[in-house]
Design brief:
Length: about 500
């Protein structure tokens, strides 16, 4: 068998992606900004495992179009089924139930980490992505929901999203239940069709009214030819739902629709509407206008466990992708009230509400609009010491050791290339400086320091190679004993 046939193809699994140093650094800045707002609101950090018992996660998954009910699952050696978490809320519910008596109530926590969905990958849809959640457990008041919405708005602005380029939209599952009753889908026998309806409406911003109309009715075939079965509603019921979700307008800062009138005589719908009005009053009193937080009954959220208000953070600006095509990102986060989720583990329900930011999706949006918080231009690599005399590795290691002891990230080039290639290596590493010491410099007890950033600026005005060699822009010789001090001075000017 030939060597070519023995090679394994280097490929990534569908729906998964690698992340380089630049993206990791930019994401790190995003996470710190989000964390700072969450902690400002009094939330504390919590970490839960990426793997949970499958029965602890429950059956609350969106778009169950894959085996294992949308999650990646496997059996342990004791025949217990385990699954990768599909969100950060279900593990929180398990943690709270497990530590209920020891936790303060309300319990305010935030979590960040990757989640996993065994779904069909596609543009903007990944099987692994990062979320950053904040939840309040043990507070039944709509004030807790209002606070979550205000925190979501503050977080987007801290991340550099300008006011007017986003909106936090709120609705209520109770309001949606009222509409469901109006079209005759209440009762346990219609539980499956209700879920199809909710997930169809949740795709309104992506598929538009015509696409949702097909999902509420006979079903829809997507661009790839895959068919999604619809809820099978009659045309009158479809029109009722679409007219409800399409009539949301604000005029002079006030809703122009009669939420109570749209719900008819539904008691649960009226209760949900009253809660929404209270949330709106609270956020307005706190100074958050309708341009930042508003009621929008088209918001559904795809997960089944929500029991009251639901929220969605939507980016409203339009930009263009690398090919020049118009892009509108839409939702980059959401959440809601889930008063029954912790009750799966306990005798009584526990009120809870929370919000999740889709970090990976928001990162892509901020990158397209050139937000400074995800810029990789400021990422600075280590100082690189060139390896010019291979029999003096110990000398070079001593120099970089002195720099590291002074808190300066540094490395010795450990490849086999010559000086020109080493300089290119330092440039690819985003190195601010290189340290150069050949045998002549060593004999004089000197070290040359080359400022790569200043050198690049100076070189732009030099016409010939001879001129460059004569000037050696931004390159200085210093006594070896002053290496650390002079490197610090140059970096401090940056």
């Amino acid at each position: 068998m030939s060597d070519a046939k023995q090679r394994v193809e280097a490929r990534s699994p569908r729906g998964l992606a690698d992340r380089d140093a630049g993206e990791l650094a930019a994401t790190g800045k995003m996470l710190e900004a989000i964390r700072s707002v969450y902690e400002l609101y009094g939330f504390e950090a919590l970490e839960t495992p990426a793997i949970e018992y499958t029965d602890a996660l429950g059956k609350f998954l969106p778009d169950q179009d894959r085996p294992n009910e949308g999650v990646f699952s496997f059996q342990d050696d004791d025949d217990q089924w385990l699954s990768l978490r599909y969100d950060l809320t279900a593990p929180l519910a398990r943690y709270v139930a497990q530590n209920f008596d020891a936790l303060p109530k309300p319990y305010r926590s935030y979590r960040v980490g990757p989640v996993y969905r065994n779904e069909k990958p596609g543009p903007g849809r990944f099987r692994q992505f990062m979320q950053f959640d904040a939840d309040t457990v043990g507070a039944a008041s709509p004030a807790a929901d209002a606070e979550i919405c205000m925190m979501a708005a503050d977080t987007l602005e801290r991340l550099g999203v300008q006011r007017g380029d986003y909106v936090i939209k709120i609705n209520s599952r109770k309001v949606l239940d009222g509409v469901i009753q109006a079209v005759g889908l209440d009762g346990e026998a219609n539980a499956g069709r209700r879920l199809v309806v909710l997930r169809a409406v949740d795709k309104l911003d992506r598929l538009g009214p015509e696409g949702v109309k097909l999902l509420l009715g006979p079903g829809r075939k997507d661009e790839s030819g895959d068919f999604t079965k619809g809820a099978g509603l009659d045309p009158a019921a479809v029109d009722t739902i679409l007219s409800f979700t399409a009539g949301m307008q604000y005029k002079d800062g006030k809703p122009s629709f009669d939420l109570f009138g749209l719900l008819g005589k539904s008691d649960v719908g009226a209760q949900g509407a009253e809660e929404l009005m209270e949330i709106e009053d609270l956020v307005r009193d706190a100074g958050y206008g309708f341009d930042r937080i508003r009621i929008d009954p088209s918001v559904v959220r795809g997960l089944e466990y929500y029991t009251g208000p639901v929220f969605e953070a939507e980016l409203t600006f339009e930009t263009r992708d690398e090919k020049g095509n118009p892009v509108r990102f839409g939702s980059v986060g959401g959440g809601g009230r889930y008063d029954g989720l912790i009750g799966r583990f306990r005798a009584e329900n526990t009120p809870a509400t929370g919000f999740s930011i889709g970090v990976s999706r928001l990162y892509a949006a901020l990158k397209l609009v050139g937000s400074p918080i995800v810029s990789t231009a400021e990422r600075v690599g280590p100082v690189v010491a060139l390896l010019l005399d291979k029999d003096r590795v110990a000398d070079y290691q001593r120099m970089v050791g002195q720099l590291r002891a002074a808190g300066i990230p540094s490395e010795l080039y450990l490849g086999a290339s010559g000086m020109k290639a080493q300089m290119k290596y330092a440039d690819k590493r985003n190195s601010p400086l290189v340290i150069i010491q050949g045998s002549d410099e060593k004999a004089r007890g000197e070290v040359q320091i080359k400022d790569l950033v200043a050198g690049a600026r100076a070189a732009a005005s030099i016409a010939t190679n001879e001129e460059w060699k004569a000037q050696r822009p931004a390159q200085i010789s210093v006594p070896e004993t002053e290496l650390v001090e002079r490197v610090k001075e140059i970096l401090a000017r940056r």
